[in-house]
Amino acid sequence: MIKIQNLNKYYGDVQILKNVDMEISKGEIFGIIGHSGAGKSTLLRCINGLEDYRDGSLTVEGQEVKDLTEKEIRELRKNLGMIFQHFSLLERKTVFENVALPLECFKYSKAEIEKRVMNLLELVGLADKRDAKPRNLSGGQKQRVAIARALALEPKVLLCDEATSALDPNTTKSILALLQDINEKMNITIIVVTHQMEVVKQICTKVAVMEGGRVLEIENTEDLFLNNTAGLKALMGDEQIVLPEGTNIKIIFPKEIANQNIITNMARTLDFDFNISYGKLEKFREDVLGSLIITVKDHYANAVKRYLDEKNIKWEEIKNDK
Ligand SMILES: Nc1ncnc2c1ncn2[C@@H]1O[C@H](COP(=O)(O)OP(=O)(O)OP(=O)(O)O)[C@@H](O)[C@H]1O
């Protein structure tokens, strides 16, 4: 659906995007995560033609964005709804009028506008607020109006630029649940730009980690957390601590086995002592996954590795600074 190859973008002499490669498939909820200044918003603005790019390729449904005429860009934007951190609603207009705006621009009939806007307000749970002004709404309600407006022209893709960054955690959850619902019901591809790991964890199927204008990695979300990848370390820091003596074995728990008593069973079977040096369990949707580093005396290490292999449990040895 969206294919980005070797994309480079400069502001003057400063290179902002560096050899960006990314492919976003239809129906995905694709996260782009990174610290402030990583280039996420710039990339989003290249996708909808608000920014041009010097070299490389960026196609939306096979069309190279930088080659589009003005008219074609307008068509492209019709297919790409967008929501922002600060909602960008018109304060003097009502909820209904805000959502109707894109439809009026594209000269839809009054009857069609009434029908579509009310359907959308139902969808986002704000039908009873049709005549309210934005100043009388909460942050979460404002974002719901913005979502309804972004969906007015029936886009194929919804671009979300830090859409929950100004919201409290509970409102964030409900907005993310709404986006997930929209993705499932309407089969709309959603691209979520965020610096919040919680957002990625809750809804993204796939995630690209960006830093300094580069893509560090693209992973299925579950694998990112499960494998504590280099990209995740770059984002969250890598605070794992290992003991200076003995062999450190990191045991990785996928969701299927996270609740089993692997460590106690192993200790009972092999009859050895161990220390837990570091543990990190993450709640990932309905599951818990993560890793634990145990430290065992060197002469037990091979038995532990064999035991884990036999049980098909992933492990890696973490070197200490002996
Ligand atoms: N119009 C512009 N002119 C010059 N430099 C810009 C412009 N817009 C963005 N930049 C620079 O490009 C870099 C990437 O900015 P961008 O907004 O894409 O990052 P981001 O990852 O979205 O971060 P944030 O979440 O803080 O917006 C930053 O160093 C920023 O200062």
TrEMBL record:
Superkingdom field:
Bacteria
Under the heading Gene3D superfamilies, the entry gives: 3.30.70.260, P-loop containing nucleotide triphosphate hydrolases
Boundaries of every ABC transporter domain copy:
2-237
Which keywords accompany this UniProt record? Amino-acid transport, ATP-binding, Cell membrane, Hydrolase, Membrane, Nucleotide-binding, Translocase, Transport
Q: Which GO terms describe its biological process?
A: amino acid transport
Q: What is this protein called?
A: Methionine ABC transporter ATP-binding protein
Q: PANTHER family given for it?
A: AMINO ACID IMPORT ATP-BINDING PROTEIN, METHIONINE IMPORT ATP-BINDING PROTEIN METN
Q: Which GO terms describe its cellular component?
A: plasma membrane
Q: Name one GO molecular function term.
A: ATP binding
Q: Which residues form a coiled coil?
A: none
Give the gene name. metN
Q: What does the record give as the organism's lineage?
A: Bacteria, Bacillati, Bacillota, Clostridia, Peptostreptococcales
Pfam families to which the protein is assigned, alphabetical:
ABC_tran (PF00005), NIL (PF09383)
EC number(s) recorded for this UniProt protein = 3.6.3.-
In the record, the note on similarity to other proteins reads:
Belongs to the ABC transporter superfamily.
SUPFAM superfamilies per UniProt? ACT-like, P-loop containing nucleoside triphosphate hydrolases
Q: Which organism is it from?
A: Intestinibacter bartlettii
